[in-house]
Write a structure and sequence with these properties.
By secondary structure, the chain is mainly alpha-helical. Strands 1-2 form a two-stranded parallel ribbon. The longest helix has about 35 residues.
Length: about 90
């Protein structure tokens, strides 16, 4: 449902995705489908409970690395390069 919603609202408002974001690949997919940002509450909540600030820093490093891998495989060199063209039907 994300792509049609993002298309319907256009530039009138920013679409944020919350729920189901478990990895950097999920973030890349959501951005490709039209989201302007993703909320990663569960990932950092588990990380802070398990390791405090260091846990959160570690999880963010993992997510960033996953995004970098996904982006490199699609040819996107910046987050701004992520669009529907990175998805495979």
């Amino acid at each position: 449902a994300l792509a049609p919603i993002a298309e319907a609202v256009g530039d009138r408002l920013d679409v944020l995705v919350d729920g189901g974001i478990r990895s950097g690949l999920d973030i890349v997919k959501a951005l490709a489908l039209g989201a302007k940002a993703c909320l990663i509450g569960r990932a950092w909540a588990y990380a802070v409970a398990g390791g405090g600030q260091q846990g959160v820093e570690h999880v963010l490093q993992i997510i960033r690395g996953e995004m970098e891998v996904a982006m490199s495989r699609t040819g996107a060199t910046t987050v701004a390069d992520i669009g529907p063209q990175v998805l495979v039907d």
